Fold:
Amino acid sequence: MHLRQLGILLVGIACLCGALAAKDYDDPFILREHLTTKSPYFPLGSFSEYTDPPQGCKAVYLNFVARHGARVASKGEIVSFDKLISFMKKNSAQLSDRARFGWMLDWTNPFKVEDAQQLLPIGERQHYEIAKRMAHDYPEIFDIPADINFPRAFTIRTSEVPRAAQSGISFAYGLFEGKGDLGNSDFRAFYSFSMPRNEDRELRFFKTCPKFQTEILDNDTTYWDSYKYLEMNIPPITERLRRLLGFAGLTDDHTEAMYKACAWEHSLHNTSDRWCSIFEKDDFLMFEFRDDLVFYYESGYGGRSLGYDIACPLMKDMMDRFDKKIEGHPDVEYERARLRFAHAETIIPFLTIMGIFNDSTKLSAFSSKEDIRARKYRISLMSPFAGNIAIMLYDCKSRNDGVPYRVELIHNEREFNISDVFQECKGEHYCDYRNFKKIYEDQALQCNFEQLCGIPSTSPAEPANGQGKPDSTQGPWLTISILVGIAFLVLGTVGGFVIGNRRGQKTAREMMGTYYDISDSDMMSYRQMGSDLQRTASPSESKRPQTAQTDLE
Structure:
């Protein structure tokens, strides 16, 4: 199937569901809200539901960061689908109910390895529509006179990975369509830039921090809970599928591949009558919590703080820009928004360093059903495709109430009441910026990325001219941005470009598809959970299915 055909179906998924806070974890059960990083984008709220800012306050600056939109499956997942097809064809005579399951023998892999992780048209549409809604909701930020210089008003920064760059372009197309006089859509040209992958500390800190690579990604114990939880819970699912389908040789690996096929079919096409039909609700919830445990100990609250402290350059840049806007600094005098587009591995640790979606009880492979159901830490809600965080700065000086600037936090288009989490905001939804800043002083103002990551020499995470934009020595990046904008007009679509994919040595996280055993000594040295459970036995010697495949590459 052609990529555009694959992605174009049901591009309106993002508009089909409302806020999730009003319902229980799984009652009613809506599958698309439980697919972790494969969950389609769904706005959690709408502007009409937002709390009005205090009278006299005006939005003056936006800090925004988003994950890329829906993409093609990873290479490892695509290969696992090919292996599943081969297994079913080899054992086709065993299939128990051809009238019901005969479609499995005719099922073809919807993805090609060479297309792995490319942005899909539905992913383009997700960001395009987010931008349209945001421009409508915040005219004081995005409606500017024709004589204002756009590059000075809006800085668009993306990671160098094509799907993130294309997502930023799609968002910009939604913002600036109808704002100029180019082409049939009256498009207005825009400016965007990326840093080289090995230098991008703001958006790809998970790849530019050596300690994160060696002490977390390459550390088997990081994934002990996700493996252990899967090891305890997947065998009964596999056994049930053996009886249901008749495949005597069905393994846990096949079960995992079937689940992932279901997840992709449902996320991209809203299809539930194929692979998803063989699973039960509790199966989906098991896989969801397994994936949550991966991130919880990799870059969340469960593991070492290094996993989320490395997001401090992004936090620092946001705070610096707020401060400069307040001070009237020439760097941001005319800038109204800083728009960033990156990855799940950017969004998740950033939400963690902000201190939100934290549970009072630590999650583990042995968490009770009650704690699992009640948890706040859910990747499906935190970082679906196109998941985003917006922090809006308001000028409130005209109120003369001693609070000149306030901030509002918006996550996936739902206002987030900061005062519910931090007492520093004193119960105010629009938090005094000075109090907001105090919450993050340690992360934002004391951020030393080189020391944190064990980097002996510095390499700037920002262009050397200090303006937040490349100087003349970085001409290729500006050229790419201009060419991309021209491509939009020529092709008449929300498109992008492809940059060569440079891969380094595979890490333990990237090689989860090959599986590895955790020794008894690792178990003995593993973190103390404060419970009576003894973690002295290693998981079985059999291979375990791969865990969450996300953006790391």
About this structure: Confidence is low (pLDDT under 50) at residues 1-22, 459-545.
